[in-house]
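Before our next group meeting I need something from you. Please put the record directly below this note.
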Amino acid sequence: MGIRVNDASLLPKLLDRLPPRSRACSSPGDNPIRYSVIKEVDPMETHREVRWRVFGGTQLEAETRDEGEALEAFERLVRFDVAQHSPRWTFVHAGAVGWNGRAILIPGASYSGKSRLVEALVRAGATYYSDEYAVLDAQGRVHPFSKPLTLRRESGRVDRVTAGDIGGELGSQPLPVGMVISTRYVPGTTQNLSDVSAGAALVALLTSTVRAQIDPAHVLTTLARTVQEAVTLEGPRGEALEMAEDLLRRASFTPPTIGETA
């Protein structure tokens, strides 16, 4: 990929928003995905207000007067393109934490409360893997994609929080999946998740998988391996902090053998 700006001061901020384990290369390749973040000051405005535009190729993806919103739009765009174009890894739109040698996955769309539940699980002792994409290898194991958590406040402000900020640790090893939680935050709801079949877990993951329509055979094989030993819970949830400790108690996994995590 290549990144273009018209203000050099933006580059460090954009590089900080690249996906985990990104690295510089001497050549972007034959057909790189190009992004442009343009900062403009309108001379006709009385207060000379600044406007940001974010492009993916020639397509305008976002236009805003808030720098934070522009950076978030760029970050979201790059991560989605990585998820869509990666042939080796299967990216599932899901939160992921580690617990007792296995992973807990929380598939779901944006604004479904994944990040809040991941935050609560990490505060309760789980290991942080991701709050946006669960990255699966061909064996169905979850690998770390440890970007900062993105937590939306009631005011609309978005905070970026590291695992260390909330007393947690980053995952470092691939983990087999021990639990899939298909849930959505509903204010005032009591905790009432029920057990469902592995097939229901596969469907929940499939509907949240970026490359499901591009490479369905590979995706289905990977997801079948992912859920083969997983407990699956489904239903609405209430407050994340109230739910987290109960979930970790229910996730009484048998630690995998060394061969399973090698």
About this structure: Residues 90-261 form a domain with the Rossmann fold fold (CATH 3.40.50).
